[in-house]
């Protein structure tokens, strides 16, 4: 019967520790972004890096072209 009390005490203590850890990380903002990990797994990381790199180049090219068009119109 003594072992039963010990097991109950251990399980309640362990549950309290997990509750405290959860509350601490919830306050730090660990669980705020719940959508991007679900979407991120659908994309390959190489594709994302290539899109970011090509996106930066395209935006630079577009800015340069828009400046050329503005200069021509003046």
Structure description:
Pfam families: FixS. The chain crosses the membrane at residues 6-26. With 74 residues, this protein is mainly alpha-helical. The chain folds into two domains: 1-32; 33-74. It has helices at 2-28, 36-40, 45-73.
Task: Work out the helix count.
Answer: 3
The share of residues in helices is over 70%
Question: What summary fits the major beta sheet?
Answer: none
**H-E order:** HHH
Average pLDDT rating: 77
Query: What characteristic shape results from the CA principal axes?
Result: elongated
Radius of gyration: 27 Å
Transmembrane segments: 6-26
Region (Disordered): 50-74
InterPro entries: Cyt_oxidase_maturation_cbb3
Organism: Chryseobacterium shandongense
Brief summary:
Pfam families: FixS. This protein has helices spanning 2-28, 36-40, 45-73. By secondary structure, it is mostly helical.
């Amino acid at each position: 019967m003594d072992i039963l009390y010990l097991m109950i005490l251990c399980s309640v203590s362990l549950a309290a520790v997990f509750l405290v850890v959860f509350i601490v990380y919830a306050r730090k903002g660990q669980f705020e972004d719940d959508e991007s990990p679900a979407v991120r797994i659908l994309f390959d990381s190489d594709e994302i890096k290539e899109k970011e790199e090509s996106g930066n180049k395209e935006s630079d090219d577009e800015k340069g072209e828009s400046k050329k068009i503005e200069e021509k119109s003046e």
